[in-house]
Design a protein that fits this description.
Helix content is about 55%, strand content about 0%. By secondary structure, the chain is mainly α. It folds into 2 domains: about 80 residues, Dioxygenase LigAB, LigA subunit (Protocatechuate 4,5-dioxygenase, Chain A, Orthogonal Bundle), CATH 1.10.700; about 35 residues. Helix 8 packs across helix 9.
Amino acid sequence: MREDRIYSDIPGTYVFDPQHSMQGYHLNMFCMSLNKPENREKFRQDEESYLDRFPLTPEQRQAVLNRDWVGMLRLGGNIYYTFKIAIFDGLSMQQVGALMSGVETEAFQKMMVDGGRPIEGNRFKSEWHNNG
């Protein structure tokens, strides 16, 4: 179980601290394995069998198979490593950002060009009760 930190109260924040690193070690090592062409080919041929090489938790395994980008981060994935799966799938950072945000790619790109996410709703969860 993850110990709460001061930043645990910020919605959508998955800080890659030592605890998170330990939690996601095997997930991130799987992602790093995709640096090698022969491993990408094995993963392409049979994702489930390839994942058997890594002692992932059932939740991590399912997040990879479902391409649950936020789920992978929540389960200890580092965005740098998990993005290797996106590259494998032929996705851009903007496409993954859109998927993680639940919006179309064009809407995500516009949001970024316009300055990013609005602050409303993205502060500490403990402040939410004061917002209405």
